[in-house]
Amino acid sequence: MCSVSTFSYLLFYALFTVLINAQCTNPTVRREWRTLDRDGRAAWISAVKCLAASPHNPDLVATVNSSISQIPALTRRLPSGTVDISYIHMDLNVRIHQTGMFLPFHRWFVHSVEQAMVEKYGFSGGFPYWNWTIDAPDFYKSSWWQDSDTESGLGGWGDPDKDYEVQDGAFAGFALANPSYHPMRYQYTAQPFAAFAASSPTIAQFFNSTMLETYANSTFHADQIAAIIAGNPSDLVNFQLSPDNWIVNAVIRYPSYPDLREIFFFQCAHGSVHAITGRDLAGTCPATTEDCIPGNKWWPNSPLFFLHHVMIGKIWSDWQNLNETSTTAFAGGSVQAFDNTTYFAEYPTRAPPMLNTSSDIYTDNMFPGATIGDVSNHTTGYLCYVYE
Ligand SMILES: [Cu+2]
């Protein structure tokens, strides 16, 4: 059941948290999903569902011009919490992907969702993560998709006869409202890039035939992720190009690289996990939605989005831990610049205006704000967690 905390408790908790976290003497621990016991998994799922069923946040406001974001106006139909959380990501899409804001925004976003679960629904904290390198060798049949427990299981692949709606586990029939009402869906998609390129001429220009046929799971094996981390010490620019950005950077930055395929592997880990899981984690339109523009907008529809992004945050953290200067390093611009390949190459972590550690993370007024510097080091005051 979703018991909402009283105001006085909230206030007490907030003050308590501020006092404790100023020192970060007692960090929460982020663990791989499969190392949690059944109660731990059920507690996280319960808090996610409570958040999804929570009232709309009346303060949430779209800040990107709709001619750019290409999303419908925010409607406040049920289900509610899920609508808001995926809507902020839909609105800010062009500012938080393929820009310097990618890593900071998503770290802040997960933290904010976690805080809401803790403060409102008694979640004890310690957001789990999905180490998909375990699943890379045989993604379709991996243990990740085998837990159908109705309280603690994440369920399996969707039913192809029902628009790939998930039929088992705790999120079977999980109701979503973006881009229109539908139950949550996953579709195993081994080679997702051809369809992805076909969806956008702007993006298609960056693909070559090899890339179009690449198997998504061939980009996120454990040894490849280890190479991304170890291969870019103190080089945040090149590190960022690895887990976040798609193929585009590889083609433009390394046009004469002898083995483009190898570079491509390192680019794609983040997007490949989205794409191979398909449907709601990949921004595919529901079969019943008319006038729908697919893309990466409503990725947070799926609770897996957050487990995935805690893993991305862990990879960033592992890189930061290589040396002291990397813990607070930042580099990146605020504009995507897809349509200008010269510009795109000139600014590998995207174009001016440039961001810095004092820059505010975009919030759409949905959650309390923070700066990029606030989320650089997750073991200090603002965030205060460690990975295990
Ligand atoms: Cu995102």
TrEMBL record:
Query: What taxonomic ancestry is recorded?
Result: Eukaryota, Fungi, Dikarya, Basidiomycota, Agaricomycotina
Boundaries of each Tyrosinase copper-binding domain copy? Answer: 97-114
Q: Which Pfam families match?
A: Tyrosinase
Keyword hit for Metal-binding: yes
Which GO molecular-function terms appear in the entry?
Answer: metal ion binding; oxidoreductase activity
Q: Which InterPro entries match?
A: Di-copper_centre_dom_sf, Tyrosinase/Hemocyanin, Tyrosinase_Cu-bd
List the signal peptide residues: 1-22
> Its domain of life?
Eukaryota
UniProt-listed PROSITE patterns: TYROSINASE_1
Q: What is this protein called?
A: Di-copper centre-containing protein
- Entry keywords, A to Z: Copper, Metal-binding, Signal
